[in-house]
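ARCHIVE CARD
Drawer: 12
Card no.: 0347
Subject: one protein chain, sequence and derived structure
Cross-reference: see card 0346
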Amino acid sequence: MSTWYDHPQYFDMVFRDETAGEVSFFEKAFHSFVPRPVSRVLEPGCGGGRLVVDLAAKGYAVTGLDLNQRMLNYLGRRLRRRGLQADLIRGDMTAMNFDEDFDAAFCTFNTFRHLLSDRDAVQHLRSVADHLHGGGIYILGMHLIPLDADPECIERWSASHGGTRVHVTIRVVDFNRKTRQETLRVSVKAQKPSGAIQRIRSEFPLRIYTPDQARELLAQVDDVFEIAGIYDFDYDIDQPRKFDEDLTDALFVLRKRTE
């Protein structure tokens, strides 16, 4: 039984249908919220890099950072197959160090919640701000947990590509509001064109945020970031959301303050 993160091709298959909508939203946000043309962009926690590949194909100078070298190797192969280039760096998203600043950055679909402490979350946000031009934006997406959330949540997806069929089940196996941590179990069944079946299981913790806890976090960095817009996972730039208890699929556009 291997792990989810050792097989980034399956991770990409599951979320590939989200890519076009996300990238379209990014470009609209670049145009709406950034006072300068956007050319250099950063994805901390890039994983297998579906967003890195798509933005590189559109001509952006993209940097992807991740701790998992297997993910970065997979992403490098994807870029080479398509004749694309991006800077791929193995590193910690709480203490980044780049020679040049970026016009925009993005981290969507709960990658941010892998940072399990308030200290790490704040360090990450400040590290991103340190590497943005004034007026640059950070698009941050994560699920928020309402007070009446069911801790026994189960989600299932199926996806196929190149003759391979993948079934994914994500189950919450531990949920603790006091420690603000939940543990997810990801089970993958992949059937290859030959008929061979591969099974993968991973468990990993994520930090829990209610809307109020997310508000408190962002207040800790309001000296460097202002909230320029709030959206959800529909990625509709014309449908902003309120920062209230009904916001569960949160997409924040944070803009670096200018001095």
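Annotation on reverse: Helices lie at 8-33, 50-57, 69-81, 118-130, 211-219. The two ends are 52 Å apart (CA to CA).
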